[in-house]
Amino acid sequence: MATHTPGYSVASVELATALLAEREVAPRARVVAEHVSQLLPGSANVVWVIENQDAPTWSARGAAGEIAVQEQELALDSGTLGELAEKKEPWIIPGSEVAREAYAHLNVRRTVASLAYVPILVDDLLIGAIEVVSYDQALQTKALTQLQEVAEIASLALATGIAYEAERHQNLSSITRLTQMYDLEKVFNSTLEFDSLLPIIASKFQEILGAQAVNLWLVEEKDTLLLLHQAGEDPAAQPGHKQKAGEGIAGDVGETGEALLIDSADDERLQRRNEGVEEGGAFTLMAAPIMDQGSEVGVVEVVNKLDGTAFDEDDLFALATMCEAAAGALHNASLLQTERKVEILETLVKVSQEITSTLNLDHVLQAVVNTPQAVIPYERAAIALEQYGKVQLKAVSGVEQIMAGDPEIKRLDDLLQWASLQEEIFVAQKDDQITAEREETREKFRAYFEASGARAFYALPLSDDLGRIGTYSLESSDPDFLSPAHFEMIKVLVGQVTVAVRNASMYKEVPFIGILEPLLKKKGRFLSMERGRRISALTLAGLVLLFLAIFPLPMRVDGEASVNPLQRAQLQAPFDSVVKQVYVREGDAVKPGALLADLEDWEYRSALEKAQASYTGAMAEMNRALASNDSSAAGVQRAQADYWGAEVRRARAQLEQTHFRSPIAGVVATPHIENLAGKKLQAGDPFAEVVDSSSVVVDVALDEDDIPLAKTGASAGVKLDSFPTRTFRGRVTVVSPKGEAAGDHRVFYARVEVPNPEGVLRTGMHGRGKVSAGWHAAGFVLLRGPALWLWAKLWSWFGL
Fold first, then answer.
1. Nearest to 284 by CA among 273, 293, 292, 294
2. In a 10 Å sphere around its CB, with 0-12 CB exposed, 13-18 middle and 19+ buried, how is residue 127 labelled?
3. Residue 800: which pLDDT band, with cuts at 50, 70 and 90?
4. Could you read off the pLDDT of 338-382 as tens digits, one per residue?
5. What is the pLDDT of residue 354?
């Protein structure tokens, strides 16, 4: 015999048992709905639950019978459910007395006989309701009694289910928050770059807290905060703004060092903050200090929750915890910056020692453009000096000798000529935007950046109390390659460079300082010698002078040499066509008229055959007219025959042009010419090059000072890098009448024709050549260079 709790039916005990088997709200609500459906056959029902008492709404969590719910969530005051929320008492409504709109939340397909509503209460607190729809007959008062008994049992089950789910949600939220904090630590420690870390900190704060905006303020001075980064949109603050205590919420938090939570839009502090803001003003706000080992380094300001609710104490606790993680990351980043500053200072000291330890101007300039690259991430540095009213490019990083003909050097030189007329310049290109005020400057650097590949250019004048002596520039493909620490270092470096360059320039302008001092010392030592030794020294000096004045020596002038072919032929496509077949390879020796390749010729063969046929026909018609004694017809056909004869010759000439033939004897010099088969050529496109290497021309670059000594027909010797043990002999055929720039001086080329019967000399070989200038006195041969230099200096000082 079964037992049950006194006062409850067997069905109620079974209901309680079924409810205990479930733990969550929705399964328990479905158990209640199914039980009600068994108690009231021919009816359908919905079990509604109010899960959040702070923001109460009706949630449909269980249903049974022929019924469906239009919306799973309803406002508390909706229709008949709203009346139940006010009464909190069960009642039955006949179907004929209630409007369909009152229960529009239900989707019923049959005629409603009656509606019944029973509240689910826990100590007078409404936590849900049972809504019953009967179709066959109206419900009676007895049914309400049964439903009340069910509601009494269901109330405890649903209340404990709601509490269980709330606790589980809280536990899940805690686990999620712990996971987020672990992820936060990993993300914050993923970089030590200060500029990269700030956006990461702000964006992660915004993501985890679900905020509209996060402002990251850092201490700039003792009592001033600077807004360095912002994630999201906050119209009341923009990056670059500064605050002190009393000027805003962040400044006040920075002064007190205590976290702040504002959860009401009516707060006076928020109203002051929102002054002048039309949209997106703050209605809730948190702020917390970032503390590093007891010292405040900044403030994090979090504005508005995206879900429209106010921040609470849990959010503030999470913010304070995240600030601790951010403080550690900022501390590590600051240590890296400190190490870099130390490294920068060490490099600055090294450069300073290097440039002040010598008066060699070239050494100073090379040290300045190359050494700072260890700590400044530039890709090219350059120095241009102002000398004798002109700006000259003197040093470029990574370049030992400046070649004036180099397009990149020319482009940089032109820009430095312009920069020498300006003060400090920093221009960068980010995407398509160029940071320059004037349109002319933007266009100038747009063209320069496009040609050079750089994206940032920084230039500073080298100037002191005596005036400007030059310009120092840095370039990089990164528009943000310079940090504030780099700018400080560069300005200090430029001051030291100015002094070093000024001293070296002045020393170079007075060369006798290095000559007179050792001469005076030698004079003193000579006068202190014994008389016999002085006579011997004078006799030896006289003999040396006699040798220099009388004894002849061969004179030669030399220079860099490069090999060029004596004769070359360039074959070009006569018309648009496709290469049909290539018969030679690079390096093959060919004779004049040798077939090198064929173009596709079917079109020209067809034209020739057509013209030939027309010519033959015209000749046949002319002969027929002559045979018939028709002179007029014969004359017409003769004209036709002449025309077609000319067409035959033209077609034959065009067909012949489809054959590439070598015009000279030589060697094929086109690389991979055999791979050109099948390539389409436009009219005038180069196809092949044939060079005559039986003799070569060696161009010897002579300084302009040596040109008066180089004569046509003079013998010459050439020693090439490829053949260091051989000397090739030839004669000068011509000395170029026009000079070419080579660095800071000009050269003239002596063309030396050298026989090459073995074919060992190839185009492009380099070496050094010497041109004979006849026999001259030993003094002229040995001392000509120093004498010319001395004469130039004396003329620059005293000449007219």
1. 273
2. buried
3. very low
4. 766 676 667 667 777 666 666 677 888 888 888 888 778 889 999
5. 67
Average pLDDT (540-552) is 76
β-strands 260-262, 666-668 pairing: unpaired
Whether residue 475 is predicted with pLDDT greater than 90 in this model: the reply is yes
CB-based burial label for 324 (10 Å; 0-12, 13-18, 19+): middle
The C-alpha atoms of residue 164 and residue 99 are separated, in whole angstroms, by: 38
Cα–Cα dist 284/578, whole Å: 76
Nearest to 326 by CA among 354, 288, 356: 288
| Three-state DSSP string of 36-78 | HHHHCCCEEEEEEECCCCCCCEEEEEEEECCCEECCCEEECCC
Sign of the dihedral defined by the CA atoms of residues 620, 626, 629, 635, in that order: positive
CA distance 457 to 445: 9
Residue 172: the pLDDT is 72
Q: How far apart are CA 522 and CA 197, in angstroms?
A: 67
Mean local confidence (pLDDT), 42-63: 90
Residues 745-758 pLDDT 10s: 788 888 888 888 77
- Render 484-521 in DSSP notation, one character per residue: HHHHHHHHHHHHHHHHHHHHHHHHHH-TTHHHHHHHHH
Q: Where are the alpha helices (DSSP H) in 357-438?
A: 361-370, 407-419
Q: Which of 240, 242, 197, 238 is nearest to 223 (CA)?
A: 242
Longest dimension (CA), the chain: 155
Nearest residue to 202 via CA among 214, 186, 217: 214
Contact in structure between 500 and 364 (CB atoms under 8 Å): yes
Greater pLDDT, 53 or 356:
53
For residue 305, the cross-strand partners are: 211
The values of phi and psi at residue 243, to 5°, are: -140, 145
The whole-number average pLDDT for the span 5-33 is 79
Rounded (5°) CA angle 203-206-212: 120
Region 329-346 average pLDDT: 71
Please tell me what DSSP assigns to residue 446.
H
Q: Does 189 have pLDDT greater than 70?
A: no
pLDDT for position 116: 92
- The CA distance from 672 to 35, in Å, is 91
Number of alpha carbons in the 13 Å side-chain half-sphere of residue 668: 23
Is pLDDT of 434 > 50?
yes
Average pLDDT along the chain: 82
Residues 36 and 133: their CA atoms lie apart, in Å, by 11
Q: Where is average pLDDT lowest: 338-342, 688-692, 700-704?
A: 338-342
Outline where 630-681 has alpha helix (H).
Answer: 631-657
Phi, psi of 75 (to 5 degrees): -65, 150
Q: What whole-number distance in Å separates Cα of residue 556 and Cα of residue 554? A: 7
| DSSP helix/strand/coil, 775 | strand
CA-nearest of 202, 198, 327, 320 to 261 is 320
Residue 494 to residues 343, 362, 489, 625: CA-CA distances in angstroms? Answer: 18, 16, 9, 99
Q: Which residue's structure tokens are 């750089």?
A: 454
Contacts of 429 (CB under 8 A, 6+ apart): 435, 445, 446, 449, 455, 456, 479
List C-alpha distances in Å: 210 to 9, 317, 740: 51, 15, 69
- Element at 771 (helix H, strand E): strand 766-777
| CA distances (Å), origin 237, targets 156, 160, 269, 763 | 51, 47, 14, 69
Structure tokens that stand for 213 in this block: 């905006």
User: What SS3 state is found at 598?
Assistant: strand
Average pLDDT over residues 572-582: 84
Taking the alpha carbons at both ends of the chain, their separation in whole angstroms is 140
pLDDT at 524 exceeding the cut of 70: no
Among residues of the chain, what percentage have pLDDT more than 70?
Answer: 88
For 146, phi then psi, to 5°, come to: -65, -40
Cβ-in-10-Å burial (0-12, 13-18, 19+) of 652 comes to middle
